[in-house]
Amino acid sequence: VDMQILTPQVFWAQRHGEIFLRVELSDASVRQSDPTATSCGLTAQGHGAKGDNQYEFSLEFLEPVKPEIHQKSTQRQVDIRIRKQDERWWERLTLREKKPLFLAPDFDRWLDESDAEMELQAKARTRRTALREKRGKLLNHERDFTYVGLKKGYLFMYNLVQFLGFSWIFVNMTVRLFILGQDSFYDTFHTTADMMYFCQMMAVLEVANPLLGLVKTGFFPAMIQVAGRNVILFVVFGCLDEMQNKAVVFFVFYLWSSIEIFRYPFYMLACIGTDWKLLTWLRYSLWIPLYPLGVVAEAVAVIQSLPIFDETRLFSVPLPSALGHSLSFSYTLQLYLVLMFLGLFINFRHLYKQRQRRYRSRKRKVH
Ligand SMILES: CCCCCCCCCCCCC[C@@H](O)CC(=O)SCCNC(=O)CCNC(=O)[C@H](O)C(C)(C)COP(=O)(O)OP(=O)(O)OC[C@H]1O[C@@H](n2cnc3c(N)ncnc32)[C@H](O)[C@@H]1OP(=O)(O)O
User: Fold this and answer.
1) Res 314: pLDDT
2) Burial code of 98-131, b = ≥16 C-beta within 10 A, e = fewer?
3) Active-site position among 291, 331, 336, 359
4) What gap in Å lies between CA 330 and CA 358, rounded to an integer?
């Protein structure tokens, strides 16, 4: 039987690097496709102009192509994409000048050479922009990485120095307490003040850190903490020789250093992403008895210093003779005593919230 070969309608378009063929066959199943370096053939069963049948076609290309085809059958058509060997514009599709009857331009995809050139340039621009963005992201990532590294390095060193300083004070005082007993109370200042000055001056950085965004905490609690201690250390103890050999210095320094020998190592571990349960618990629990005791000890120191300031007239403000001789600094300190208890309330609440946050978020992580 002389079988009639049916040819489907084929539409084509090109770009500099590829050829698109659209074969008008619906619900087609491709039986055979023969891509070579110069031609392409296709045999498929599907619904075309002559109903449900087997259709086939072959095309000999004007120039060599890559011998692989990408085809996709849809309900409506078969889409074929073939890559040219050289990225060049062809003046026609087929080797023969006379185009086959079944071949027509695909106007949905059609571009002339200059439009295709523009499309190519647009694609290259998009690629370049994407590349630039990727490089930018990489650079930002690298910058972030360096910033985080420097920040962690700085915080680690800061905490280490404070830890060493307060440990030295704590150990020194403990050893002296064991050896000298109560006698050690009275020369605490002379044996540890230099180190305490150093640590408390450094602690000013704790106020700067939240301001610079280096740590995720409020500036105000840190300011209250550092300013409060520095008033006691530099003004009440530092400026009055009479205060320096009082037992209260021992209690104030011991209470301060008792928390810091746990707080700073806790921060050091946080800088390297580690967390020791016991240390975390000590950092977030010891303040509960220590903070009120600390404030009471500081208040005792302030109260003891009031008559000395009255007597020595240190920092007193001269007044017009009608109002008296001068205004003693002790009045400022009495106001400060009130502020201290306000500070205690603010920081106690802050530390309570920090404790809640820490244990709430850890619990959430466990579930
Ligand atoms: C002239 C005007 C004067 C005005 C003054 C007014 C009156 C003042 C009265 C003051 C009374 C003071 C009394 C006081 O001196 C008594 C004592 O101190 S007695 C001893 C007991 N004391 C304590 O326990 C307090 C110790 N100090 C503190 O806890 C802090 O200084 C405080 C600011 C109070 C709280 O700390 P913070 O807000 O930082 O909370 P966290 O520790 O939970 O940290 C939050 C997150 O930040 C990270 N962070 C913080 N610092 C660092 C650091 N140095 N390095 C690395 N990371 C840090 C921390 O890891 C937390 O991060 P995350 O949430 O991710 O875990």
Assistant:
1) 96
2) eeeebbeeeeeeeeeeeebeeeeeeeeeeeeeee
3) 291
4) 40
Tell me how far apart the alpha carbons of residues 134 and 313 are, in angstroms, rounded to a whole number.
68
* pLDDT reported for residue 365: 55
DSSP H or E run through 34: strand 26-35
Residue numbers of the chain with a pLDDT score lower than 70: 1-4, 361-367
Query: Distance between CA atoms of 110 and 62, rounded to whole angstroms?
Result: 18
For 352, phi then psi, to 5°, come to -65, -45
pTM equals 0.74
Which of 189, 185, 187, 263 has its CA nearest to residue 222?
Answer: 263
Kindly provide the ipTM of the predicted complex, given to two decimals.
0.97
CA dist., res. 93 & res. 106, Å (int): 12
Summarised one tens digit per residue, pLDDT across range 301-357 is 999 999 999 999 999 998 887 777 889 999 999 999 999 999 999 999 999 999 999
Which pLDDT score is estimated for 188? 98
Domains located in the chain, CATH noted: 10-110 (2.60.40.790), 140-366 (no CATH)
For 86, residues 6+ apart whose C-beta sits below 8 A from its C-beta are 63, 64
Question: If you write DSSP's letter for every residue of 320-333 in order, what string do you get?
Answer: -GGG-SEE-HHHHH
Using a 6 Å CB cutoff, which residues line ligand 1?
A: 155, 159, 215-217, 221-222, 224-225, 227-229, 231, 255-256, 259, 263, 267, 270-271, 287, 290-291, 294-295, 298, 339-340, 343-344, 347, 351, 354
**291 flagged as catalytic:** yes
- What secondary structure does DSSP assign to 43-105, as a single string? EEEEEETTEEEEEEEEEEBSS-EEEEEEEEE-SS-EEEEEEESS----S-SBSSSSPPTTEEE
